[in-house]
Design brief:
The structure holds five protein chains of five kinds.
Chain C (H helix, E strand, L loop, with lengths): L21 E3 L9 H5 L5 E6 L4 E7 L8 H5 L5 E3 L14 E10 L6 E5 H10 L7 H8 L3 H20 L1
Antiparallel strand pairs in C: 1-4, 2-3, 3-5, 5-6
Chain D lengths: L5 E7 L5 H9 L11 E3 L8 E5 L4 H12 L7 E5 L1 H5 L28 H10 L7 E4 L6 H12 L9 E3 L14 H14 L1 H18 L3 H14 L3 H21 L15 H13 L1
Helix pairs in contact in D: 1-5, 6-7, 6-9, 8-9, 9-10
Chain E lengths: L2 H6 L2 H15 L3 E8 L2 E6 L4 H9 L8 E10 H4 L1 E10 L6 E10 L4 E3 L9 H11 L2 E3 L50 E5 L11 E7 L2 E8 L7 H7 L3 H9 L6 H16 L5 H29 L3 H22 L8 E2 L2 E2 L5 H26 L2 H7 L7 H6 L4 H5 L7 H4 L20 H25 L17 E8 L2 E9 L5 E7 L1 H5 L3 H5 L4 H11 L24 H14 L1
Parallel strand pairs in E: 2-5, 6-7
Antiparallel strand pairs in E: 1-2, 3-4, 4-5, 8-9, 9-10, 11-12, 13-14, 14-15
Helix pairs in contact in E: 7-8, 8-9, 9-10, 9-16, 9-19, 10-11, 11-16, 11-20, 16-20
The chains are: A mainly alpha, B mainly alpha, C alpha+beta, D alpha/beta, E alpha+beta.
Chain lengths: ~300, ~700, ~160, ~280, ~575
């Protein structure tokens, strides 16, 4: 058992670190195909990343906050991903870890914001500002989804929720809310307002260069991976929870993850970016509707 | 032994009052000496707290009585009191270290002796409030606390807004806080017939009616700044000197929570209705307070609104605890209450620290307007670091203390299996993000970017001020990383209330915490280990830093897309933050416009007598002079945007318009005011002692 | 499906109508400089060196705007737009095409004229047989401008003298 | 140098938009530079390469300098897209165009100076590192050409361009045509007004072939009618007929004796009749 | 000639306009001269400039009248005076008249009363004249530099004849010599957009003064791309060569510029262009419009992150590019138009190619329109954004789809029929809403119209030569040439000179008239929309900005449901 645990933990660490660029590459390829072009190689994101990581950065400020932000973001993203289930193993697990997951993931955004606000540049400032507003508007929806799961499963452990869920109307709706909030939080088009390239030059990133940028981008990819892995675990585990074989569960999770990435690529290429006020309005609307889900859950449906 | 330590604390405070009187010619010396004594007093209070822990954890309270000859003051120190003692001790210590240098900023007002007298009286009154076990004395000290805090608050009395905030505070406290307490005191006195009968033990044996719940809720709620009685707070706290703000926000409003728990849970019975009320009031408070805070660009006003918001968390935790205890989940209820109290301690520490930091900024730059601040991290690195720790704590980021208490509050609400409480938890989660947003703004506008014309001459504050803040920052980390150092203490009130054994529900080993919910599937609970998190994060950061060393060889210009832009213009100002979001919740902010008319109408018809008092006072004020009246008009004229909170409070505003004009006149002369306050105090004391 | 072309990994021909980079066919160029006059971008240079008697027609593809005015103006078809477009390089000297031609030397005074030997030959080709007195023309045309003027003046003086005389 | 990923920042130093749009085109489905790892960067901080278009006006000079200085210190590849960026193009000596003091504004130097090189040289003088410059001439270059240049920068293709220096040794040819040279030149000039400069060479070649074959004016006329029947393009037919008329007119003018292939007609009115016929035929 | 064209080009109608002006100002008019078919030059004293120009431009009945161009010239070698000429076009399907209001300014007192206070559309023209010729407009609201680079010394005027065209005088470049931007209004931050912003293809600096994300005001500095083309054209190049630099004024609408230039010279030199050449010019101009509009629609998608729309628009556009390459030898800068005609003929196979491409294009573009307009996020981003009111459009003399999206109903192709347009039938799409979506729709509809125009032109194309021979152009004659470029009316003013060279050449690109109205469209929108609004202007030539009073009340938001939009797009496509 211990050997399996160590093996799975190691595999999960490898997945966390090295899978996200591949998934990003797949997303890019799918998008390219939808646009009827050949698109980059699936490994292109690795190339991009290694190229960035080999380039010496320039520093527009000597401020420590600016220089440390990418490292913090990276470390937080990896730490957040470690509380998720990989097969039957969760590298780090404890009660209420879903909040820790959210807060640690929020640290990626905090690093993004602090980096963006640490120097006088309206582009980075606006990017950071928008990132915060995104979090503000999506947090209650995520909260309702978690609340519904907690009411249903009576546990707040990510590892335990999918195993303990009983499927009711409210839980199914909560899945929808979770998927929506994961999509928004991941900053996919039309919700990529914080890193909008054409409007605000990728926000905070507009001042990062070289390996600082590489690390930051890597961190964001890991963040997306963590979010989608959470979703894919929630989707896949209830179907395979009686299967004892951890490897099989892991493979199911991976397949669902791939499908999610491909699906997201399709949605992304079919949409224009929204404005931040559109996003807030839409999210608030979803939140108000989601209260009905909570009511259903409270009534036990 | 413990009793003597406590007495030493009291004596040291009294001594500090006496010592400064001969030194009053020398501003600095008197304040330094006074604060050395108060610092020592705080240390002795901390020593008392630590020393009493073993007994208190076993459930034994420390009881003793001071016989003053004319009256006896009984004391009863249990877990709940000790939590507040801890807060008062640590905050008192920090402000005592911080204040001597900081008060130089106010040297032009002179009167150092008075400041020390008031400071000592204020802190001492709070210590006595949380330890005394007699309701009469409780109310008496409560009044002392209100008076001293009022006088400290209007220290900068040549500023219009300070005087305005002062009378707002004074009036609201007397109408909404002291009055209900005195009414309940009178009713209880009528019931028991003796001062001794007002001992808490005795009162607990009485079966008191629901009217007391209402009176206590109003009385303590208004002091704690619970919506809708919070409107005085955002004006009052920024008006005071920052070290006093730290005490006001860090300690005084916590005393109200103590009062609430002490009265409603220990004297009265915890009921479901009470619990829900407290929890919902808490949720409303945290939502309203924080969303208002989001919009502020005045550093201290922002912090003050956050005090409102964070009090909401405390109330939510306590309310959830009361509900669950009343519903028959004693263990889990105790945990939820502990979560609320945990947040109480944490909030005292980080909010104290934040006010001290804001004070440091004010001390060096003479402004608290976040729009004009910037670039201080470079000039005041330690202040920046401490502020960052405090900001991350209040935003609830792991591994700081705010995260631990919020995490426990979420657990307490989400796992309660009660839809309403879950909703409260969701709002708390949401508002946590808003808090983060607000503090990202607070930190980055003041400390981020390049220095502006306002800040370019700033430098780091003196080391004594830094030590004061450093102590609090250390506590932030300590309570975040080693929650088990305080959780057993926090659990004692719950234990005392329910009398159940909590082992198996919550366990604390070294620095590890685990919580079990009532209906949680059994097994598999593991510990949350902040150190593990810190370890993983640290290892990753260090590993990346080693692989990609981060040493700027030279600094290039910021990218301005090719055309040079002045740095001062190339920055979002504090007021620009979160514009679209605020615009979207604009309705909440400005619903007041519509509500104010309606509210005024309803309230005026409901509380005719209440208003006639105001009208009488108005008539009296007219006699005082027409120019004085202009102040009232000023208030009306300049309140262009009527916020929702003020609309709800419109009867109070009506009243205050009258009262305020009177007090305005009085407060123009500080000495007169002092005399008046002393006289009122004396009269009250005489009345109380005479009974 | 994907419509992407495989270029640059496979060869790709430009369409026959394409105006690619110009190219001077050195065997046809007579160094007349018509293209130089026509070029709006001054991509073509005419550099005469009267000391060594050479004329360089320099084509700089890196300055050429590919308007095909030179193609249009060239009397011999020496400069043509090709269909080649792959001229990216790291070294600008790769873009330069130089045709170095000999200038005609005046047999009378020994100075170099401002036209090339080839231009002269081309001129003779254009002149129709028998239309003019070819020998006479040859005698005059090969002279440089100064000598020719002198010859003409001399002739006139002589003729007038005949008339007067 | 072999890069598998190239973030390009686009720097317009006063171009006419043609090159910009072609640069955009390179990213679109038919050319899809992303498959080579090329992406447009949002900020020079991300860029490995700078795609420069335009002749470097004085107003853009300072901003462009800032932009290149804002790049990471290496590799700082410069991709000069278009003739203007390579050498200043048609605008090279306009008054608002930047030139280094030592660069002549009029001159006989070659390769021609101007464009981005002036800025690169200034930066190098200041001690800034600037990587290699890839010159992609064209006005505007085709997207393929830009792809080729980028591929060259990435080391995916070989350089093909080569400077040439011809001297008299290359040999000299005076090509002989079936018809007299001065008539050919006149016809060539006339054709410009009928079908334009581009198509005239082919039509003239065909015509000369026919004229060479024809023994008499009637035969030439017949051959041309044949040719027009075979070739259904009305414009070419028209051109051929115009050529025929012009040819006969010139023959008439210069006299039939000299350098004649097609024999002179017997009667004087012959040429006129042909012309009338052509007018009828072209309707 | 079609009936509508005959009506517009009616001699009586034309004279009515001229006569009214002459009658109105009577004695104050020094001379009236008809210098070309539809062009009159009226000479007046400089004091009367604002009154006369203002009268014609703001004439209440001549609704779509506008200031087309204004040129200053250094006529000191000829007359010892500077000259100024304001060209006003009378549009709106009522008559085909260009009025040139000319005045002379003495050398020793180079001042004239500014027209800008009467008609803001003259703002840049007058600033430009000040920069390049040193003629000072008195009473002009914004005396800042417009065209010349920041490091250009004061008092050197490049367009004066005593300035040699290769000179490039310099002054020290310091913070003081930097362009004096306005101080940001209180409580705003600066959002510098450009010169090197990823969404601007060209350098231009927009200084957005923002409150958070909301744009409060805009200041900007353009003319980064000022290349001194007019000076080069007047000095270095011959008549024929100028065509090629005219084509390189703008890489997107080069043919329109080359055509406008050629038409101006043809009008001045009275050169008759063969009819076939006119048709070929028309086809080329429309092909250019096709690619330009598709480009713009694609870029609008790109700016809001709608990559599918961007890629598809460019994919469809590539057919046009390939077609152009086959027809002219290059994908852009066609090099087709030359004085007197065109340079390449349409052989049969090229005709077939055009027809095939158009068939493909119509089908695919229709699909694109359907798909894009059914993307809700796209509509959401474009609707009610960047609203330019009719009043502003008129005030600033805006042209092209930018103005037609705001309800201005004029088009140089219809109102001043040039090339072969007088033989063809087409509609001018106009939308009244004034937002980005309206402009997108105008462009989409124009694409369909263009396809229809090309088809007609191919069908009706006559035989004959494609190039007229011309020997010499008489010196010192003035004329304007005008075309409807994809972005609106392009006007070139020429004054012929000696030695096969121009004396004065004034280029007025369509964007030049559109740019100053940009701040009006941008105010009140958010930063996120800024690049979209700029893209919807479809800027192609660098111009500059001005200061003016904020007038937000005019802005009306419009609500159009998705269904209506789809209907609309269907309607567009069904028509052709």
């Amino acid at each position: 058992m211990e050997a399996e645990r160590i093996a799975f933990s190691f595999i999960s660490l490898c997945l966390i670190l090295f899978l996200p660029p591949l998934l990003d590459g797949i997303g890019r390829k799918v998008k390219a195909r939808i646009q009827l072009r050949q698109g980059p190689s699936i490994l292109q994101t690795y190339y991009d990343l290694t190229t960035f990581l080999s380039v010496e950065p320039v520093y527009p400020t000597e401020r420590l906050a600016f220089r440390l932000a990418p490292y913090i973001a990276f470390a937080s993203a990896v730490s957040a991903a470690l509380v998720l289930p990989y097969g039957r193993v969760i590298p780090v697990s404890f009660t209420g870890d879903i909040f820790v997951f959210l807060y640690v993931l929020a640290m990626v955004s905090i690093a993004y914001m602090v980096g963006g606000f640490s120097l006088n540049n309206t582009y980075t400032n606006t990017g950071a500002n928008r990132e915060m507003m995104m979090i503000l508007s999506i947090e209650p929806i995520l909260g309702v989804a978690i609340g519904t799961f907690a009411l249903n499963a009576h546990t707040l452990r990510i590892g335990a929720i999918p195993f303990a869920l009983t499927f009711t109307v409210s839980v199914l709706l909560a899945y929808g809310l979770l998927a929506y909030s994961v999509y928004v939080e991941g900053g996919f088009i039309p919700f990529d307002v914080a890193e909008a390239e054409q409007e605000i030059l990728e926000g905070t990133f507009s001042e990062y260069s070289g390996y600082l940028l590489g690390i930051f981008k890597w961190a964001l990819m890991i963040k997306r991976f963590a979010l989608l892995w959470l979703l894919s675990s929630f989707i896949s585990i209830p179907f395979v929870r009686n299967v004892a074989n951890g490897a099989l569960i892991l493979i199911t999770q991976l397949i669902v993850l791939l499908l999610l990435y491909a699906g997201i690529a399709v949605i992304e290429s079919m949409n224009a970016r929204l404005r931040i006020d559109h996003v807030i309005r839409r999210n608030t609307g979803v939140f108000l509707c989601s209260l009905a889900v909570l009511l259903l859950a409270a009534l036990g449906w | 032994m413990m009793e003597e330590l406590f007495t030493l604390t009291v004596i040291l405070y009294l001594l500090s009052i006496l010592v400064v009187l001969p030194l009053r010619k020398n501003y600095r010396a008197s304040i330094t000496v006074g604060h050395v004594l108060t610092g020592l007093a705080s240390i002795s209070l901390l020593a008392f707290t630590v020393g009493s822990l073993p007994d208190v954890l076993k459930g034994k309270a420390i009881e003793f009585t001071y016989n003053l000859g004319v009256a006896e003051i009984p004391f009863h120190v249990d877990g709940l009191s000790l939590i507040l003692c801890l807060v008062l001790g640590s905050l008192g210590l920090a402000t005592s270290i911080y204040s001597p240098r900081y008060m130089e900023f106010y040297e032009r007002f002179g009167r150092s002796w008075l400041y020390v007298v008031l400071y000592s009286a204020f802190v001492l009154s709070m210590i006595l409030i949380v330890t005394t076990s007699n309701f009469l004395w409780f109310v008496f000290f409560w009044e002392v606390m209100t008076f001293t805090s009022y006088l400290l608050m209007i220290w900068e009395n040549d500023e219009e807004y300070v005087r305005k905030a002062g009378w707002k505070y004074f009036v609201t406290m007397h109408v909404a806080s002291t009055l209900p307490l005195i009414i309940s005191l009178a009713m209880l006195y009528a019931k028991t017939g003796s001062v001794n009968g007002l001992d808490f033990d005795n009162l607990a044996t009485l079966h008191l009616g629901p009217i007391y719940y209402v009176l206590f809720l109003i009385g303590f709620g208004s002091k704690a700044g619970v919506v809708p009685l919070h409107f005085w707070l955002p004006d009052a706290h920024p008006a005071a000197p920052s070290n006093v703000s730290a005490l006001l926000s860090g300690a005084m409003i916590k005393v109200a929570v103590y009062g609430l728990i002490r009265t409603t849970c220990f004297i009265l019975r915890p009921t479901e209705a009470l619990g829900y009320t407290v929890a919902i009031l808490g949720t409303v408070t945290l939502t309203v307070g924080t969303l208002y805070a989001l919009k502020q660009t005045d550093a201290k006003r922002l912090l003050a609104y956050h005090s409102v918001g964070q009090m909401g968390y405390i109330w939510l935790g306590v309310g959830a605890g009361i509900t669950l205890i009343a519903k028959g989940y004693p263990a889990f209820g105790a945990i939820a209450m502990a979560a609320g109290l945990y947040h109480l301690v944490n909030h005292a520490i980080f909010k104290g620290l934040l006010f001290l930091s804001a004070g440091s900024v004010l001390y060096r730059t003479h402004t608290r307007d976040l729009n004009v601040l910037g670039g201080l991290a470079k000039l005041m690195p330690f202040t920046a670091l401490f502020t960052f720790i405090a900001a991350m704590s209040i935003a609830g980021e792991p591994p700081f203390n705010g995260f631990m208490s919020k995490w426990m509050i979420y657990q307490g609400t989400f796992l309660s299996g009660d839809g309403l409480l879950v909703f409260c938890g969701i709002m708390a989660l949401f508002i946590s993000a808003a808090t983060l947003a607000s503090f990202v703004k607070f930190y980055t506008t003041a400390f981020g970017g390049t220095p502006t014309t306002t800040t370019e001459k700033a430098e780091e504050v003196p080391s004594s001020m830094l030590i004061g803040k450093g102590f609090l920052a250390f506590l932030c980390l300590l309570f975040g990383l080693v929650p088990s150092s305080i959780i057993p203490l926090l659990l004692t009130p719950g234990k005392a209330l329910t009398g159940v054994d909590l082992s198996g529900w919550i366990s604390t080993k070294y620095w590890l915490v685990t919580i079990r919910a009532p209906r949680m599937p059994a097994g598999g609970e593991t510990y949350f280990n902040p150190w593990l998190f810190v370890g993983v994060l640290g290892v990753l950061v260090v590993a990346m830093l080693i692989s990609y060393p981060n040493r700027p060889k030279r600094i290039v210009k910021v990218w301005t897309t090719g055309e040079p832009v002045k740095a001062e213009h190339y920055k979002l100002r504090a007021m620009h933050y979160y514009g679209p979001f605020e615009e979207y919740i604009h309705g909440l902010y400005h619903g007041g416009d519509a509500l104010s008319g309606w509210g005024t109408y309803v309230c005026s018809s409901l509380a005719g007598g209440y208003l006639s008092l105001g009208r009488t006072l108005l008539r009296w004020a007219e006699k005082v002079g027409k120019d004085v009246l202009s102040t009232g008009r000023w208030y009306e004229k300049n309140g262009k945007e009527i916020y929702l909170d003020e609309a709800v409070a419109s009867p109070f505003v009506q009243l205050m318009k009258g009262l305020g004009i009177a007090i305005e006149e009085v407060s123009l002369s500080y000495d007169l005011l002092l005399m008046l306050a002393a006289a009122t105090l004396g009269v009250m004391m005489l009345i109380l002692l005479g009974w | 499906m994907a419509v992407t072309l495989k270029y640059p990994f496979v060869k790709l021909e430009a369409p026959p109508e394409y105006r690619g980079i110009p190219h001077i066919e050195p065997r046809l160029c007579i160094g007349c400089g018509a293209c130089v006059n026509a070029c709006p971008a001054d991509a073509l240079l005419k550099i005469d060196d009267h000391s060594t008697g050479t004329r360089k027609i320099v084509l700089d593809v890196g300055r050429c705007i590919r308007c095909a005015r030179c193609d249009e103006a060239c009397p011999t078809g020496a400069i043509r737009m090709t269909r080649n477009f792959e001229v990216a390089t790291l070294d600008r000297s790769d873009h330069v095409e130089v045709v170095e031609l000999r200038l005609h030397r005046c047999p009378n005074c020994g100075n170099y004229t401002d036209y090339t030997e080839r231009a002269l030959e081309k001129a003779f080709q254009i002149l129709p047989e028998g239309l003019f007195d070819k020998e006479e023309l040859r005698k005059k045309a090969i002279l440089c401008r100064n000598c020719r003027r002198k010859l003409t003046v001399d002739d006139t003086i002589e003729a007038s003298r005949e008339v007067v005389g | 140098m072999k890069l598998r990923s190239l973030y390009i920042f686009h720097l317009d130093t006063g171009a006419c938009n043609g090159c910009e749009i072609e640069l955009f085109d390179v990213l679109t489905p038919y050319y899809d530079a992303e498959r080579l790892g090329v992406r447009l960067a949002a900020s020079p901080r991300h860029a490995h390469a700078m795609a420069v278009t335009g002749p470097l006006t004085r107003q853009t000079y300072y901003a462009a300098k800032e932009a290149i200085k804002a790049m990471p210190p290496k590799p700082r590849i410069i991709v000069a897209i278009g003739t203007c960026a390579c050498s200043g193009g048609i605008f090279y000596n306009g008054y608002p165009i930047y030139r280094r003091p030592e660069s002549p504004r009029e001159g006989q130097e070659y390769p021609r100076r101007g464009g981005i090189f002036e800025l690169v040289q200034d930066l190098r003088d200041e001690g800034e590192y600037v990587g290699p410059v890839v010159y992609i001439p064209g006005c505007p270059p085709r997207p393929e050409e830009i792809l080729y240049g980028v591929a060259l920068a990435l080391g995916l293709v070989e350089k093909r361009a080569k400077g040439e220096h011809y001297t008299e040794e290359a040999g000299f040819e005076l090509p002989e045509y079936p018809i007299e040279e001065r008539i050919r030149l006149s016809l060539r000039e006339r054709l410009k007004y009928v079908v334009g400069y581009f198509d005239r060479e082919g039509i003239l070649r065909d015509f000369m072939e026919l004229a060479g074959k024809a023994e008499s004016v009637e035969e030439l006329h017949r051959l041309i009618e044949d040719y027009c029947l075979r070739n259904p393009d009305s414009r070419i037919s028209l051109a051929m007929r115009v050529l025929e008329r012009e040819f006969l007119r010139l023959k008439e003018k210069y006299g039939w004796e000299v350098g004649m292939n097609a024999k002179a007609p017997q009667g004087e009115v012959r040429g006129v009749q042909v012309a009338v016929k052509r007018d009828a035929g072209s309707r | 000639m079609k009936e509508w064209a005959r009506r517009i080009m009616d001699e009586k109608v034309r004279e009515k306009y001229v006569n009214e002006v002459v009658e109105k100002f009577g004695d104050r008019i020094i001379s009236v001269e008809r210098n070309a078919d539809n062009q009159w030059i009226i000479e007046i004293n400089r004091e009367d400039l604002p009154e006369v120009v203002g009268y014609i431009v703001n004439h209440p009945e001549w609704k779509e009248t506008q200031l087309s161009t204004m040129a200053g010239a250094d006529e000191r070698p000829l007359r010892g005076k500077f000259s100024l000429i304001y060209w006003i076009s009378i549009n709106g399907a009522s008559g085909d008249v260009f009025l040139g209001i000319k005045t002379y300014i003495p050398e020793d007192d180079p001042r004239f009363p500014a027209v800008t206070p009467v008609h803001p559309g003259a703002h840049w023209y007058e600033r430009e004249v000040k920069d390049l010729l040193g003629l000072i407009p008195e009473g002009h609201p914004d005396p800042r530099r417009l065209v010349l680079p920041d490091d250009w010394p004061e008092g050197v005027y490049p367009l004066r004849k005593d300035f040699h065209y290769t000179d490039s005088p310099k002054r020290e470049f310091t913070d003081e010599t930097k362009y004096p931007y306005r101080e940001p209004p209180k409580g705003t931050a600066v959002f510098p957009l450009g010169p090197y912003h990823v969404a601007l293809d060209e350098p231009g600096h927009f200084r957005l003064f923002v409150k958070g994300e909301e744009i409060v005001d805009v200041d900007y500095r353009l003319f980064y791309q000022h290349r001194g083309i007019e000076k080069i054209g007047e000095n270095r190049l011959t008549y024929d060569q100028v065509n090629f630099i005219a084509e390189r004024i703008c890489g997107i609408c080069g043919t329109a510029h080359a055509l406008a230039y050629a038409q101006a010279v043809e009008a001045a030199g009275k050169i008759e262009v063969p009819e076939r050449a006119e048709y070929i010019r028309t086809v080329m101009a429309e092909i250019e419009r096709l690619h330009s509009h598709m480009l713009n629609l694609g870029l609008a998608c790109h700016d809001i992150g709608f990559d599918k729309g961007f890629m598809d628009a460019f994919r469809i556009r590539e057919h046009v590019m390939w077609l152009a390459e086959r027809l002219t030898g290059n994908r852009k800068t066609y090099g087709m138009v030359i004085i007197g005609g065109v340079r390449r003929d349409f052989l049969e196979y090229r005709r077939t190619m055009i027809e095939e491409t158009l068939r493909k294009l119509r089908e695919e573009f229709q699909k694109w329109v359907d798909q894009t307009l059914s993307t809700r996020t796209f509509i959401k981003r474009c609707e009610g954004v960047g609203v330019l009111s009719y009043r502003d459009a008129k005030r600033w003399s805006s042209v092209g789809p930018w103005a037609r999206g705001s309800g201005r109903n004029f088009d140089a192709r219809r109102d001043h029929p040039f090339a072969a347009y007088k033989y063809l039938d087409f509609k001018v799409p106009v939308h009244k809403e004034g937002d980005v979506l309206a402009r997108c729709l105008v462009r989409a509809e124009e694409i369909m119209e263009s396809i229809w125009i090309i088809e007609q032109a191919l069908d009706e194309m006559p035989g004959g030569d494609i190039l007229a021979e011309w020997k010499e152009i008489p010196p010192y004659r003035e004329a304007v040439g005008f075309t409807e470029a994809p972005r609106g009316e392009d006007v070139h003013y020429v004054m012929t000179g000696e030695g096969n060279r121009l004396y004065r050449w004034r280029i007025r690109a369509s964007t030049y008239n559109n740019f100053p109205s940009l701040p009006d469209a941008m105010r009140g929108n958010t930063v996120a929309d800024a690049v979209l609004i700029i893209a919807s202007l479809d800027p192609c030539y660098s111009c500059t900005e001005r200061v003016q009073v904020v007038d937000l009340e005019e802005k009306r938001a419009r609500v159009l449901t998705e269904k209506e939009l789809i209907e609309l797009s269907r309607k567009v496509s069904r028509r052709v």
